Amino acid sequence: MSHQWRGLIEEYREFLDIPADTPAISLGEGGTPLVRSEWLSGLTGGDVWLKVEGANPTGSFKDRGMTAAISVAVHEGAKAVVCASTGNTSASMAAYAAKARITPIVLVPDGKIAAGKMAQAIMHGGKVIKVRGNFDDCLRLSRGLAEHYPVALVNSVNPVRLQGQKTGAFEIVDALGDAPDYQLMPIGNAGNMSAYWLGYQQYAELGRATRTPVLRAFQAAGAAPLVLGHPVANPETRATAIRIGNPASWKLAEAARDGSGGRFASVTDEQILDAQAALAREDGVFVEPASAAGVAGLLQELAAGDSYAGKKVVIVVTGNGLKDTVTALEHHGDIDDVVVDADIDAAAGAAGLA
Ligand SMILES: *Cc1c(COP(=O)(O)O)cnc(C)c1O
């Protein structure tokens, strides 16, 4: 008997709104760990779980949407795909395009992409084009290219992406036995929150969950259009994956917020980077800066007197810390290089054992 996870299209095909005969182009995405946070459960008096999306094949949840988008694009005859990206979408698209043996074209804001993500796009054969502009400019160009040239757009404005991404909600319900009371997560272009809401609603309608969670999504203070209620012309944050001034899925995310009884809030870069460091140290989970926004949000709410006591809470941590080690270590402060001779007593002394 085989126990290998088959990738999310084969695991959840009956629940996905994609052509029934679409062959799956998969790297084994999904099936990511739901890890209990002893730290945050202790702090809240609740039951707090981390959905560790950095465990996906290219290190972020973007693989969920990409397996669906690339599978459908190839099924429809695409020979090339294009996306605008703050880094993770292009890393994922390039990998799935390589697997499908089609051409990935990547538009990124010049100078704002974490090195690990750029390396992924390049290593997977992406035609990487740096744009003098921000993510929102890149998305406009990608839409234009897809309109006028024979390339398929795989940004989350492609509704097939959300079909893949909603499986995160399925996995959480399947693991916990029901939907949590609350889900907290970062939000940038707003596709992921919208997708989770689709997934939770669908499982409730099917009777696989008795309820839907309250969704709370957190932006970086320098890139918080959803909180402010208007686009931000020059979004700025160290959390580059959520450095977006005009979210494409704005309306869908507002519907998810209102339908779930949730809210948007913002956290500062300092809070985000502190939460990233604390999560790594306290729980052993190293996420990229943007991915820590949900944790930073929880800590902010606790400080403001909100309570999660007795509640089941899921925090989606969206991407892997290895993607951007530079930002993490810059925030860490001085790192003492401890160098000793190759001697047991010296090592024991330096380690504080002796
Ligand atoms: C894309 C991304 C986000 C934001 O998701 P949206 O769907 O754009 O809201 C958050 N964290 C990471 C690591 C990402 O790659």
UniProtKB/TrEMBL annotation:
Role played:
Catalyzes the gamma-elimination of phosphate from L-phosphohomoserine and the beta-addition of water to produce L-threonine.
Fetch the NCBIfam families from UniProt. Answer: thrC
Biological processes, Gene Ontology terms: isoleucine biosynthetic process; L-serine catabolic process; L-threonine catabolic process; threonine biosynthetic process
Give the family per the record.
Belongs to the threonine synthase family.
> Which Gene3D superfamilies does the record cross-reference, listed alphabetically?
3.40.50.1100
Q: Which parts of the sequence belong to the Tryptophan synthase beta chain-like PALP domain?
A: 25-319
InterPro entries per the UniProt record, alphabetical: Ser/Thr_Dehydratase (IPR050147), Ser/Thr_deHydtase_PyrdxlP-BS (IPR000634), Thr_synthase-like (IPR004450), Thr_Synthase_bac/arc (IPR026260), TrpB-like_PALP (IPR001926), TrpB-like_PALP_sf (IPR036052)
* Pathway(s): Amino-acid biosynthesis; L-threonine biosynthesis; L-threonine from L-aspartate: step 5/5
Which residue positions does N6-(pyridoxal phosphate)lysine occur at? 62
Q: MF terms per GO, please?
A: L-serine ammonia-lyase activity; pyridoxal phosphate binding; threonine deaminase activity; threonine synthase activity
Q: Mind telling me which Pfam families this protein's record contains? A: PALP
What top-level class of enzyme does the UniProt entry assign? lyase
Give the originating organism.
Nocardioides baekrokdamisoli
Q: What is the lineage of its organism?
A: Bacteria, Bacillati, Actinomycetota, Actinomycetes, Propionibacteriales
Please state the Enzyme Commission number of this protein: 4.2.3.1
Q: Which reaction is the catalytic activity of this chain?
A: O-phospho-L-homoserine + H2O = L-threonine + phosphate
Q: Provide the binding site for pyridoxal 5'-phosphate.
A: 88, 188-192, 318
Q: Which cofactor does it need?
A: pyridoxal 5'-phosphate
Keyword check for Lyase: yes
Keyword terms = Amino-acid biosynthesis, Lyase, Pyridoxal phosphate, Threonine biosynthesis
What is the designated name of this protein? Threonine synthase
